[in-house]
Inverse folding.
């Protein structure tokens, strides 16, 4: 019985992890589901989002990001100011030890300015992230519809709570 149970659990985990087509590891960090919101063909700006799970005992920091699609790439946060949601550049994005940092619409995000090419729906583009401890990693960001919500978000949080 125990054997059957572990086999079932094993296949369940296999199914869960295969749902994340885009997963990257750098040092003790795991980056899941990088995506970008579709923008009009004439847009000068775009944004990217992803989850970072820090499996280490040490806090890390996202220091910078760069991409060939844009002349300028910044780390951004959304915050309430004078009763309005505004976004502004931040120096770093904290990646706390044994925790999940989710970059998502309305929160932290990567912002691209002066687009050299506007990524089309269904395409991917390259994004290089540099972390203080884990170092640099190049990831592929998939362009999704403006209404897209990452399906794995809940599962990632559930897995995280099991640690
Ligand atoms: Cu922004």
């Amino acid at each position: 019985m125990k054997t059957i149970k572990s086999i079932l659990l094993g296949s369940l985990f296999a199914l869960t992890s295969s749902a994340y087509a885009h997963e990257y590891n750098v040092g003790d960090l795991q980056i899941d589901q990088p995506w970008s919101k579709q923008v009009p063909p004439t847009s000068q700006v775009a944004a990217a989002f992803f989850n970072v799970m820090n499996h280490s005992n040490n806090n890390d920091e996202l220091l910078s990001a760069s991409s060939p699609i844009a002349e300028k790439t910044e780390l951004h946060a959304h915050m309430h100011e004078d009763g309005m949601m505004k976004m502004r550049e931040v120096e770093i994005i904290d990646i706390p030890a044994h925790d999940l940092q989710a970059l998502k619409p309305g929160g932290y995000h990567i912002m691209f300015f002066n687009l050299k090419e506007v990524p089309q729906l269904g395409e991917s583009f390259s994004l290089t992230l540099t972390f203080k401890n884990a170092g640099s990693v190049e990831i592929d960001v998939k362009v999704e519809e403006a209404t897209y919500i990452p399906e794995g978000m809940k599962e990632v949080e559930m897995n995280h709570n099991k640690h």
In short: The CA atoms of residues 37 and 147 lie 8 Å apart.
